[in-house]
Structure formats: structure tokens, C-alpha cells
């Protein structure tokens, strides 16, 4: 095993590259060039690999950030960039540029999984919630006074679960260890049989059969085998894993241990998104309590040769790492670039070994199935979508939050439950999912109809859907890993087209070219990000064509580049604005 991954079983691997870079970032407010070569030598990694990782993850910086570093969410549910710009004006800060005195820097970031918490931001990596204009004078005073974050109002950092509807999993708080005891009593084959009977499919969005995944990994003769819990939910509008990690972590860790028992793994990893770093102390405390209860570690529940422990690795701001093979690359201290598949992780995963990658909700469900049995789980939901689904509901509704219902509930019923009956559109499954209008609200939330990893974003009649889709296009262009040309080049071009249309300069020609390019990106991209990046543009065109039509110019062509506008800076510098300073 490489030196950099040789930390003790069950400990947070502090010598993981992502963690060491985070420590440097916190110490120096950026990654100093002089620190890179010594770090690479210490971890036994090529300097080029360390350099590449620094440039890949958005939470690492080459130039100093402010002692107070604020990142405002630009999500359509938990973002309000007008607040950011007002605060910048009050503090004399240019977005993205650290103030001359080094006290503060302010910028925007992608959705941080706080879509039910009002306007949200990160301050030095800590979550701020429920921000409004009334907070700004206090923020200005605290920042200018250099007040430590621990002395800021505690309520600003409060994150609520907002469980509005608890169902099969969330209302059934099984005793810690009950699933493991039941599994050990029945044996591995019985556990796999119950999992098969349950019909559990992955809750991350893809819906692969969980029992089959475990069995495929178990059947590979190579060892060691690994288990990874994907807690890097980064799809805008998705925050269910945050709630499960906060209030149901013991069940999730027990689900990991059940999987390890089934596949013969001795070590697992929880890959936690960087925005959820604030959960780390309580997650580590839960792991400690499980070890003390003999539910984790060596000889679990006094079973000889049943050894399994869990380490936590924390990401650094890269949506693409939610894709399982990109996550494995990140876990191996590399850039999070999706792998070519096959081979799939169950055959060739972490460090080239057989690996199961499961979602937080999937593993919580596995614990319940071990306790109550596969038939109990199968009795809920639909024929093709067994059990319940935990939905992250946000946007234009009176009660955003977590809703758990059996698969098969209609969009309309969910809208009525959360107070979103006036919606003109719903984005199901986040930006990579499906945008639907009122005529489709009778459709069912299930794998056989509208599949979703959990995100339900509601848009009322007052919303500008073109602005929403434009936001999504900017998100995908920003989050592209850059590996393949269709996505690396295509997503910025799509962003450019929709920006042009939104500004009132687009023509029917631009719309047609955008649609053509969207299909190229969709069909030719390497991974799911590029393959779904054009979905919002195409759905809006197919289902809300008037939204585009209302913005188009009635002429054949309008150039992207406006030379006269580009000369505005020159006119300002020369203090000229006469006719001769303009192009006719």
C-alpha cells in the first residue's frame, strides 16, 4: 500500500493529499508554491500529481484568500447573489479578489446542499444559513473588526434537518447493531437472499440492483476488497444525505458493515463532500461509539476473522466526484476524472481492487432490510421500485425539506404535501434530470417513470425559467472536469448560447445551433455529467418553447462579439464618448 494511504485502520487518514492540502490552505490561506515539493516527497507522490490536484478542486487556491473567506451559493434554491454583491459593496470587495488588507475575500460557489435553509454561504468552510439583508450590517462589523468565527452568533451556523414527512426508514429508528446481529445469526447467504428479496436499488440515481452489485464484488477472487460510501451529493437541490449523515449516521455505518460482511471487505471509506465538513466531528464520534460497542473494528460482535473499519476522506469542491469512478480517483489522491468503463468498480475499483460504491440512503435501507427482512421492504413502493424514497424538496413551496414516501407517489401529491401547488414547473432529479410542466404533474416518482436521486426543485409562476436553465448551464460548464472534448468545449459553448439568448441578442439561428450542439454534447461526452448537461436546455425547448421565443430577435443573425461594446473600457480610460469614439 502506498505510504500516503497507510494510515491506521479506522482513523481519518490525515496523510491523504486532500486533507494535507486543506491544512495548508487553512494555515496560509492558499497553497504556497514552496510547500508543494516537500509535501509531494513526504507523501511519495509526483509533484505533477500534487499540482494537478490543487488546480482541479475549487476549494484550493494558488493566491491568498482573505482571513475571512466567504463563498455564496449560486444555486436557484439556496443562493441569492444580490446579497453577495451588496455585501461586496459594503466591504469594498471585488468578487473573486481578496481585499488589499487581506481581511476578506468574497466569491460564489456551486450549490452547497443547503437548499432548505434559505440563502446559504460558506465562511472559512463553515456553513452560514438563513442569510437575509438584515444580517449584512452585522457581517460587515464582524469582518472589519476581525472577530473570530467562534464569536459570531451561533444561530447563524444552525442547520436544521427539516424532516417534514418520515416514512419507512426515517420513522423506524432501529436499535444500533440490530441489523448486524440479525445478519450474523443468519449468515452471509441469508443476508444476500434478503437483500435480493427486497429489490433494493441504488438511491444515488442510477438505480442498479444493490444485491447484484454486492454479489458481483463478492464473486471476484481478488483481495482485498473495499467498500466506499458515496456521500458527495453535489447535484443542486439535493440535500437528503446531509440529513441522513446528521441524524442516521449509525444506521449508515451499520449498512457499510453489513456490506463488508457480505463481500468480505476489511476496510471502507466514507467520501464526504467538502461542504459537509462541519459534520466531521460528530461522524468521527459515531465511529468511536461503534468501535466501543464492538460493532466496528476487530472481531466484530466477537466473531473471529470479522474485521472491518471505516475512514473518512473529505472532498474539496468538485461535483464530478459524485460519479463513482471519479470518486475513486479522488480517493486515490488524483484529479477526479471519470474512468473508462468497463471494467466497473466491482471488478477493478479502489487501488485496482474489487470495490462496492453505494449511496448513503442505500446503506441506511440495507440496515433496515437486515432487521425487518426483504419481504417487508418489498411490500412498499411499486413492482419495479421497491421501498421508499427520501426526497429533497426545495424552491417555491411553503415547506421545503425532507419528505419520505413510498415509490410511486405522483409529483402532484408531493407538491400538495409541501405547499407547492402553484408550480409552473418542477425539476426532478436536479439539473441532470427532467424539467416537467403542469401537464406532467400526474407522473409517478419511480424508476419506471420519473427516476430521481432525490432532488425536487419547484418553480412558481413568477420564476423566469430561462434564468433557471441558464443557471444550470453555468453550473455544468463550471463543473466539467475537462477530460473529454465534447464536454470541455461543448458546455461553455452551450453557456455562451443561452447567455446570448437571455441577453436578448439571440436569433432563431442561435437557438437551432444550440439545440444541435446540445445533442452532440449529450451523445459524445465521456461520462454522465456531459451526457446530461444539455437536458435542461433541451427540456425547456421541448416543453416551454415560448420562453425561448419571447427572447429571440427576429433577424437571421446577430454576432456574439460586439466590437463597439468591447471598446467601452478604452473610451473610459481616454475620457472620450463622442461619436468618433464609437463604431458606426
Structure description:
40% of the residues lie in helices and 14% in strands. It starts with 16 loop residues before the first helix and ends in a 10-residue tail after the last helix. α4 packs across α5, α6 packs across α13 and α7 runs antiparallel to α8. The strands form 3 sheets. It has a 6-stranded mixed β-sheet. The protein has a 4-stranded mixed β-sheet with strand order 2-1-3-4, with helices on one face. A 4-stranded parallel β-sheet has the order 8-7-6-9, with helices on both faces. It has 584 residues and is of the alpha/beta class. It is globular and about 90 Å long. The N terminus is likely disordered. The protein contains 23 helices and 14 strands.
Helix content range of the residues, please? 40-55%
Q: Taking Cα atoms only, what radius of gyration do you get, to the nearest Å?
A: 25 Å
Instruction: Please identify the structural class as seen in this structure.
Output: alpha/beta
How large is the share of residues in beta strands? 5-15%
Apparent shape: globular
Main β-sheet description: 6 strands, mixed
**Are there runs of 5+ residues with pLDDT below 50, and where?**
1-10
Question: How many helical elements?
Answer: 23
Strand element count: 14
Widest sheet: strand order?
5-11-10-14-12-13
Overall pLDDT metric: 94
Instruction: Please report the distance between the alpha carbons of the first and last residues.
Output: 68 Å
